[in-house]
Amino acid sequence: MTDDVIRTADLRAAGVTGHQIDLRCRPGGPWQRILPGVLLLSAGPPTRAQRLRAALVYAGPGAVITGVHALREQGLSHLPEPDRVHVLQPEGRRLTGHDYVFLERTTRLPTAVVRDGLALAGAARAVLDAVRREPQPLRVHQLLGAVVRAGLCGLPALLAELNAGSKRGAAAPRSALRALTSRESNARAP
């Protein structure tokens, strides 16, 4: 258990009965159900870290946080925090999103970058997962540029990830990367 987030199954395995869990999770009780099968062992509102940890616990082993939440954990804390946590899960898993968790199955599960015990997608994958669903072209440019300017990854890594991934939602990021590459080339020209 980390950040007071624990699976109900782990409590039961430790000898806590379902009845005891239900009693403690009543309104006004010391615990709360934060997601199906996931408890927060405190009564107050969950912190950002607890919400992220709960999303990973809910998604199960092998899951990684991606998108803007992963970028914030890797140093881009100035990015506005989205309402939903985007979590990648192994292709064979059949969980669906719930409440504030958006789950996506993938055949290309990235190797996790671990920060503060949280499994995160690397910057290139995280930003591309974010911009593939971004309806505003200016925001696509801003997110990609922010990752490059922060030194989290370069344009070649972004292009390689874009080419390796799904073609769905790739047009806007591809256009933005062309513009960033052109701008970078013009800046280097004498």
UniProtKB/TrEMBL annotation:
Residues 171-190 are annotated as: Disordered. It comes from the Bacteria. This is Uncharacterized protein. The lineage of its organism: Bacteria, Bacillati, Actinomycetota, Actinomycetes, Pseudonocardiales.
